[in-house]
Specification:
The protein is mostly helical and 229 residues long. Helices cover 80% and strands 0% of the residues.
C-alpha cells in the first residue's frame, strides 16, 4: 500500500491526465451497472434476474472502490490513508464477492459457495483489522480474498468452456478473456513500471484503461451468457 504522499511525484499535466482517465473509468463502470439494471427489468426468469443483480453490483462497487482510491491517491491527507485504503480496497472486494456469489448460486453450484464464504470472511477482516493496528494482516487477507473470488470463477468458466459447445462456449471464452484482462490490468502496470518499460504516467494509464476494458468484457460476457438470460 502506498501512502497518500507517495503519489505527489506525479504533478502537472500527468496528474490531470490520470485523474481524468480514472473518472472516465469510474463513470463507465456506473453506466455499465445501470445498463445491466435496465436489462433486469426486461428479464422474466427469476434466477437470471438475481444473477444480473450480482453482475450489476460488481460493476457499481468496482466504480465506487476506484473512486475512493482515486481520492486516496490524489486528494486526501496522509491522516486519511488507512480509512480510505480500507474502504476502497474492501468495497472492491465486496463487488467481486457479489459476482462470485451470483456465479456459485445461479451458474455452478458444485463449488458449494466455498469462494463466496472465503470472500465474506476476508471482507470482515479487511474492514476490521486496520482499525486495531493490524493493517498487515488486512493486506494479506485482501490478497487471499481477491484470489479466491477470482481464481474459482476462472476455473468454473474454464470448465464450462471445456464441456460446452456453440454459444455457451463462446460466452465462457469471453468471460475468461475478461478475467485475464483484469489480471493483466492489476499486475501489468506495476511490472512494466518496475522493469522501466513504462514511466509512472504510462503504468497508471495502462492499469486504468486495461482494467476498464476488463470490466466491459466481463459484463458483456455475463449479460450475454445463455445462463443469464
Amino acid at each position: 500500500m502506498l501512502l497518500v504522499t507517495d503519489y505527489d511525484d506525479i504533478q502537472g499535466i500527468n496528474r490531470l491526465i490520470i485523474i481524468v482517465f480514472s473518472i472516465g473509468m469510474i463513470l463507465g463502470s456506473f453506466i455499465i451497472s445501470i445498463l445491466i439494471l435496465n436489462k433486469i427489468r426486461k428479464t422474466e426468469i427469476k434466477s437470471s434476474r438475481y444473477f444480473l443483480v450480482g453482475v450489476s453490483l460488481f460493476a457499481f462497487l468496482f466504480g465506487v472502490g476506484r473512486l475512493i482510491l482515486l481520492y486516496h491517491d490524489y486528494f486526501a491527507d496522509n491522516s486519511l490513508d488507512t480509512i480510505l485504503w480500507t474502504l476502497g480496497s474492501g468495497i472492491t472486494l465486496v463487488g467481486l464477492t457479489c459476482l462470485t456469489f451470483a456465479i456459485e448460486k445461479f451458474i455452478f453450484q458444485k463449488t458449494k459457495m466455498i469462494a463466496s464464504v472465503i470472500g465474506i470472511i476476508c471482507i470482515v477482516i479487511v474492514f476490521v483489522f486496520p482499525f486495531i493496528g493490524q493493517i498487515g494482516i488486512a493486506k494479506i487477507f485482501l490478497y487471499v480474498g481477491n484470489g479466491a473470488v477470482i481464481v474459482v470463477p476462472f476455473f468454473i468458466y474454464l470448465y464450462i468452456a471445456k464441456i460446452s459447445t456453440g454459444a455457451l462456449r463462446l460466452q465462457a471464452g469471453i468471460i475468461l478473456t475478461g478475467m485475464i484482462v483484469m489480471l493483466i490490468a492489476n499486475l501489468g502496470g506495476n511490472v512494466l513500471f518496475t522493469i522501466h518499460v513504462l514511466d509512472r504516467l504510462g503504468s497508471q494509464l495502462f492499469g486504468i484503461i486495461i482494467a476498464f476494458l476488463g470490466v466491459v468484457i466481463l459484463s458483456y460476457g455475463f449479460v450475454k451468457s445463455p445462463n443469464a438470460r
